[in-house]
Amino acid sequence: MVDIEVQIPSAFDPFADVDQDSGGGAGIKEYVHIRIQQRNGRKSLTTVQGLKKELSYEKILKDLKKEFCCNGTVVQDKELGKVIQLQGDQRKNVAAFLSRAGIVKKDQIKIHGF
């Protein structure tokens, strides 16, 4: 008989390398999500989530409110953590502010809505 070496392929997991890198964070992008929520009529809310936990949300909110002349608050959510809410459609303004202030890089910002 002829000895044939047969390799049986194991189950391929496309996310195996992601699980290994989850501790380091170098290969994973943490996105900051900027969304708009429609209230009633022309009124809307802009929400910012995904900022780093060690940042001072209150100071960022204070600067955002002063810069854009709008009101806002920090809301504690069970699933999402702290979320900044601003009155009006401030998506582009917030994205420009966060990148200009050096809080996040421009490629880490995701703008959602409409």
What's the alpha carbon Rg, rounded to whole Å?
Answer: 21 Å
Major β-sheet profile? 5 strands, mixed
Decide which structural class fits the backbone.
alpha+beta
Helical fraction: 10-25%
How much of the polypeptide forms β-strand, as a percent range? 25-35%
- Number of discrete helical segments: 3
- Placed side by side, the strands forming the largest sheet appear as 3-4-2-1-5
Element-by-element helix/strand order: HEEHEEHE
Poorly predicted sequence stretches spanning 5 or more consecutive residues? 18-27
Mean pLDDT across residues: 84
Q: Between the first and last Cα atoms, what is the distance in angstroms?
A: 68 Å
How would you describe the shape?
A: elongated
Number of strands: 5
Please tell me about this protein's structure.
With 114 residues, this protein is α+β, with helices and mostly antiparallel strands. It is built from three helices and five strands. The protein is elongated, with a radius of gyration of 21 Å.
